[in-house]
Amino acid sequence: MLNTPALNKDTTVCISLAGRPSNLGTRFHNFLYAELGLDFLYKAFSTEDLEGAVRGVRALGIRGCSVSMPFKSAIIPMLDGLEDSAADIDAVNTVVNDGGVLTGSNTDVQAVAALLAEHELDPSSHVVIRGSGSMASAVSAAFARAGFGRTTLWARNVEAGRAIAQRDGHRFIDDEPDSADVLVNVTSLGMAGADEEELSFDPDLIRGASAVFDVVALPAETPLIRAARSIDLPVITGAEVHALQAALQFERYTGIALTRDQVDRAHAFARSA
C-alpha cells in the first residue's frame, strides 16, 4: 500500500451509486490502485437524485461508476449508449465516461457465467432462481446462455418475473416450488439490514438440493449459505460474484486486466474490515 500517489488535481475518480452502499467496492478498487501505483480514487455514494448524480458524473469527468440496486434500470435513459451486455437485460451495473459520453454495460452476467463454469454446475440440473429485479435478470440471462435448460424463475412480482422467464426461455412460478437441484437467491433476503436473518428457501427444499447459490454480497455467509454448508452442500456466494464483477469493472476503468491472485487479494482486503 506504499505506491499510492498523493491526491492531486489530475487524480482520476471512480464512484459507485447504490441504495445501500457498502465499503466492499471502495476497499477492493482502492487496494488495487495503491498496489499498482495508479493515480485513481474510488468512493461509494447513495443518492435520492439519480438524474442529478449522473449529470455530475458527466460534468465532473468521473471516469467510472458502479451501479447497484435500485438504480440499475432507472439509469438507462440517462446514458448515451448501452453495450449488449446491458441492453439485452435492461440493466446496467457499470458506466464508463469517455470524454462526457456515458456508456452502460453489465459485468454481472459475465461474472455469474464464469462462476457457473468454475464450480462445474451441471447444465441438466433443475434450477430455481428466486427474484425478479435487475440482478435476477442478469442471473437468469447467465444461466440461459450457459445452457441450463431446466430453469424455473420464482417471483412474487408476476409481471416482472414472467417477463424475465419468457425472455430467457425459463418456466415461471409465483409460489415456492416443491424441489430443485440448484437453488439461487437473488432477493434481499439475507442481506445486511432488516432482512439479514431471513432464509430465502424452505429448509426442506435446501436439504433436497445439490447446490446453493446466493447472490447477496454482504454478508457473504447468509442464512442460506450457512444452511447449505451445515449439510455439506456446494455453495457459490455473492462475495464471489462481487469480486469477479468488480475486477471486470476495474479493467474497464483502468485498461488493466487483473490476475486471479490480484483479485483474490483485493477481495480478501475488502472483506477484512
Features:
single chain, 273 residues, alpha/beta, Rossmann fold, six-stranded mixed β-sheet, six-stranded parallel β-sheet, 12 strands
Describe the structure.
This protein is of the alpha/beta class and 273 residues long. It folds into 2 domains: 12-106 and 240-271, Leucine Dehydrogenase, chain A, domain 1 (Rossmann fold); 120-233, Rossmann fold, CATH 3.40.50. Helices cover 38% and strands 19% of the residues. It has 10 helices and 12 strands. The protein has helices at residues 24-36, 50-60, 84-87, 107-118, 134-145, 158-168, 203-207, 223-230, 238-254, 260-271, and strands at residues 12-17, 40-45, 64-67, 81-82, 94-98, 101-105, 126-130, 150-154, 171-173, 182-185, 211-214, 235-236.
Name the average pLDDT. Answer: 96
How many helices? Answer: 10
Morphology call: globular
The succession of helices and strands, N to C, reads EHEHEEHEEHEHEHEEHEHEHH
Low-confidence stretches: none
Largest sheet properties: 6 strands, mixed
Span between termini? 15 Å
CATH topology of the largest domain: Rossmann fold
| Spatial strand order of the main sheet | 2-1-3-5-6-4
Secondary structure topology:
Layout lengths: L11 E6 L6 H13 L3 E6 L4 H11 L3 E4 L13 E2 L1 H4 L6 E5 L2 E5 L1 H12 L7 E5 L3 H12 L4 E5 L3 H11 L2 E3 L8 E4 L17 H5 L3 E4 L8 H8 L4 E2 L1 H17 L5 H12 L2
Helix pairs in contact: 1-10, 4-5, 4-9, 9-10
Describe what is shown at a glance.
The protein is an alpha/beta fold. The protein has helices spanning 24-36, 50-60, 84-87, 107-118, 134-145, 158-168, 203-207, 223-230, 238-254, 260-271, and strands spanning 12-17, 40-45, 64-67, 81-82, 94-98, 101-105, 126-130, 150-154, 171-173, 182-185, 211-214, 235-236. The strands form two sheets. Strands 2-1-3-5-6-4 form a six-stranded mixed sheet, sandwiched between helices. Strands 9-8-7-10-11-12 form a six-stranded parallel sheet, with helices on both faces.
